[in-house]
Every structure is written in structure tokens, then in C-alpha cells.
Design goal:
By secondary structure, the protein is an alpha/beta fold. It has two domains: about 120 residues, Immunoglobulins (Immunoglobulin-like), CATH 2.60.40.10; about 325 residues, Zn peptidases (Aminopeptidase). Helix content is about 30%, strand content about 20%.
């Protein structure tokens, strides 16, 4: 943004804040905030490299392996999960060669012990492509995106029957692969991890292993997105809904006894401001900015009823994780053998997908991941001072250690509103008072903003009684 325009808008913002203070806070729209970044050419370029034809070719190739059941054969060059994982790795390596070797492509292998859906020990293999961050310090932050490449027929223990798995989850796997190839030519400050995981249908095996190892190794997973069933099929009633995509985000995690932090969230009305919910708001905003043709509809739940996904092991290890799923599912084309019953075609086949829709979902992923990886880390030790009775709000936080920080932005919303409504850029400080904005009436967050205007995910303030 030209300096003269930035100066003019900052002045207008100051006038708006001053004039509205008497009415319980400045009614400043986020869209009027001068510190919002202009659209990034690099993000637009990455999105432009995602197309429906590539998504379709990947899905049809995955379907061609007949079944990708986690317990299916592994040595056959044309059928089974072994052939599928080798092809995924080969294709990601081909993309890597085209961009000069910036992607690190590898198998993540482990032996899963016998259990409920695993009759005997089996080797499970994730395919992982890592794009290392370009900035020391920021590169330690990892943003993970996944789709599961295994499939299943009606019987989850049947590794021999046809299980094409076009939409569940060839669509998510294809979206992740296409996104990795589209983003690899560009540089991002933080590290991106693109994963095709296995064993989801047998109990989230691959994601459980990777998330658990990340926790043991102390890897900073700052956010995780899983794509599962994103191909846009019509519902059982024949109606299609391709106008939005759902994003599921957990609030307070299930547990017998809440932690002290969770108790504080409940006591202060912040139960919808957990890390997964903050991540969901960020993904929604990035999608609106770069892919307005596919709005992200956030659902404040861990997942759909009776279902689960690869974000759950990340949540259980304390990481912020969300799930993306198409707007309207058709259960005749999930977990079914390909066959005609009563004149109706069952089975998860490519002809029931909408590849343009799947490509738009992949673009939302690319936009969100790039915005996360280009931006700064979320502020730490964010606190709200509750020292006296007043109609102001004073927030404080620890200074961000990463370079290129321009300052911080306070965001807030009505307690009944799901998304941020108001914002104020407060400069490169670590304490600020919003005069006339009562802490009793709003929910607050603090974001770090870099010199290019990229904002971080917001952090909810915990109340403290001492200055």
C-alpha cells in the first residue's frame, strides 16, 4: 500500500476510534484495518498452479490400484496399498525435481501392533513431503496438511474386495499432493509438511504415529489441517451443494477433568477461543481473501456425528488441528462395494465427484497454509489486566522473538459472535489499553503483524490481577 494511503487510513482509523469510544468501543471493521496485508503475489501464484485436471488425474490413478486397504497386498506393482504409496512418493519426487529439489520426500514407516482392526502386526507407511522454512527461528514452526490414501469396502476387515476410494479419501490425498507441487516453488518462513497418511480406516494409524512422534521429539506443530472427503459429491437426495466447504473445529477437548487453563476459558466465556477455533478463524479468513468463490463454513464441532479423522490424534497431542470436508455427503459412495443394488449404483467412484470443487478446496488449503507460513508466530503470554472496576480493557503480551515484526493488533467481537468483528493496530508495544472498550462486553485476541502486513493466528488473553 502506498505510504500516503496508509497514512490517510491510519488517520481515519484514529478518528473513528476517538469518535466511537463513548459508545462502548470503536466500531472499526476488520476490513478497514490498514495493517491487513494486501494479497500476496506468491500466494496467488501458488493457487494459480492448482487445477481440476491434475486433481482428476491423481484421483483416477489412485482408483486404478483397485483397493488401497491398509491390509492389502504390498508387492504387486499395480494393485494394493504398496503400489499406491510407491506411486504417491514417485509423483511427489517428480514435482520435487521440477522445482529444484526443495521438497524432502520420504516414507514414514512403522509396524502397527495387532489390535481391534489389525488382526496381526502390519507395516504402515505414510508418505511425507517437507518444505523447509526459509527463516531461522520461524522454520521451527511446522504447519501440517494431510489426506489419507487408504480405502475400504463395506467390510473394514476386507483387504481383497474392490475399494476405489475416489472421494474417501482419494480427493483429500490428491488435494494435498497438488498443493505440495503448487507451493514447492515458493519460499515460506515456516516449515510446511504435506502428508498422505495410511491406516485411517483401521483406526487413524498413520496420523496417530506421526503426531505421537512429533510430540515426543518436541516438534512445534503450530497448526494442522486434514482433508477428508472433499470431492463434492451430490447428496443421497440428488441435491448438490458446491457453494461452500465445511471446516470442523473443536472447542474444549473432551476429558474427565478440565485443566486450569480450560477452567479459565469457561469462567471468562472463552470456550470458543481454543487454539483449534482460532486456527479455524484464520483459515476461513484466508479462504475469503484468496478463494472467495468457495466460502469456508466453520462448524464448531470436533467432527461429524459417528465419524472421525486424522486431525484427532493431533488434537489429542495438544496441537491445533481442524478438518475440511465437503458440504453435502453421499453415504452410498462411502465405505461401500462398487455394485448396483435396487437399480442404484453404490461405491466410491470418480464419476460421483466434482473435480472443480475439489480444486477449489485445494486452493483454500494453499491460501491458508501460505498465509500461516508467511506470517509471524502467534503472541505468547497474552494476558488481560483485571485490577479494578472500569470500562476500559488493558492487554499485555510477550514480545515476539522473530524478526520483521511491525507490531500487534488487538481483535475483538461480541460475546455472541463467532468471528472477529473489530480490530485496532496498536504498534510495536507489549501493553495497550483500549479506552472505552469494556472487557465485560467482548471477547478479545491479540495477533502479531509483520512488516508486510501478515498477521498471525490470534491468542486469547488470560485474566491476571496484577499489573
Amino acid at each position: 500500500m502506498p505510504l500516503i494511503n496508509r497514512t490517510r487510513i491510519v488517520a481515519m482509523l484514529a478518528v473513528a476510534v476517538a469518535s466511537a469510544a463513548a459508545a462502548d468501543g470503536p466500531q472499526v471493521s476488520l476490513l478497514d484495518n490498514p495493517q491487513l496485508a494486501l494479497p500476496s503475489p506468491a500466494i496467488r501464484a501458488a493457487i494459480a498452479n492448482i487445477d481440476a485436471a491434475r486433481i482428476e488425474s491423481y484421483v483416477r490413478k489412485l482408483v486404478s490400484f483397485g483397493t488401497r486397504h491398509a491390509l492389502s497386498e504390498t508387492e504387486n506393482p499395480a494393485r494394493g496399498i504398496g503400489a499406491a504409496r510407491r506411486w504417491i512418493k514417485d509423483e511427489l519426487e517428480r514435482c520435487n525435481r521440477e522445482v529444484g529439489g526443495r521438497l524432502e520426500v520420504a516414507f514414514d514407516e512403522f509396524v502397527q501392533a495387532a489390535g481391534q482392526r489389525v488382526p496381526e502386526p502390519v507395516k504402515v507407511v505414510n508418505v511425507v513431503a517437507t518444505l523447509r522454512g526459509s527463516e531461522e527461528g520461524a522454520a521451527a514452526r511446522h504447519f501440517v496438511v494431510s489426506g489419507h490414501y487408504d480405502s475400504m469396502p463395506r467390510d473394514v476387515m476386507d483387504p481383497r474386495s474392490a475399494a476405489p476410494g475416489a472421494n474417501d479419501d482419494g480427493s483429500g490425498t490428491a488435494a494435498v499432493m497438488v498443493t505440495a507441487c503448487a507451493m514447492a516453488p515458493h519460499r515460506y518462513r515456516a516449515t510446511l509438511v504435506f502428508m498422505a497418511v495410511a491406516g485411517e480406516e483401521q483406526g487413524l494409524l498413520g496420523s496417530t504415529h506421526w503426531a505421537g512422534q512429533a510430540k515426543k521429539q518436541g516438534i512445534n506443530v503450530a497448526g494442522m489441517i486434514t482433508n477428508d472427503i472433499v470431492g463434492g459429491s451430490k447428496g443421497v437426495d440428488g441435491l448438490a451443494e458446491h457453494g461452500y466447504v465445511r471446516l470442523f473445529a473443536e472447542g474444549l477437548p473432551p476429558g474427565l477433568e478440565p485443566t486450569p487453563e480450560q477452567r479459565t476459558l469457561i469462567q471468562t466465556g472463552g470456550e470458543s477461543d481454543t487454539q483449534p477455533r482460532q486456527l479455524a478463524r484464520f483459515v476461513r479468513d484466508a479462504g475469503a481473501k484468496y478463494v472467495p468463490e468457495l466460502p469456508v463454513r466453520v462448524v464448531f464441532r470436533r467432527d461429524r456425528y459417528l465419524r472421525g479423522g486424522d486431525h484427532m490424534p493431533f488434537l489429542e497431542n495438544g496441537y491445533a488441528a481442524v478438518r475440511i470436508t465437503e458440504a453435502r455427503e453421499n453415504f452410498r459412495h462411502q465405505h461401500e462395494n462398487p455394485e448396483i443394488r435396487d437399480g442404484v449404483q453404490y461405491g466410491d467412484l470418480p464419476e460421483f465427484m466434482n473435480f472443480d470443487y475439489a480444486a477449489r478446496v485445494a486452493k483454500v488449503n494453499a491460501a491458508a497454509l501460505a498465509a500461516l507460513a508467511q506470517g509471524p508466530a502467534a503472541p505468547a503470554k497474552v494476558e488481560m489486566e483485571t485490577v479494578k472496576l472500569e470500562n476500559d480493557t488493558t492487554l499485555r503480551w510477550a514480545a515476539n522473538a522473530e524478526p520483521e515484526i511491525a507490531g500487534y493488533r488487538i481483535v475483538w467481537r461480541d460475546t455472541t459472535a463467532p468471528f472477529w468483528q473489530y480490530a485496532a493496530f496498536v504498534g510495536n508495544v507489549t501493553r495497550h489499553t483500549l479506552a472505552g472498550v469494556s472487557k465485560d462486553n467482548y471477547v478479545f485476541g491479540v495477533q502479531a503483524v509483520d512488516r508486510e502486513g501478515n498477521a498471525s493466528v490470534a491468542t486469547y488473553p488470560m485474566p491476571v490481577r496484577a499489573r
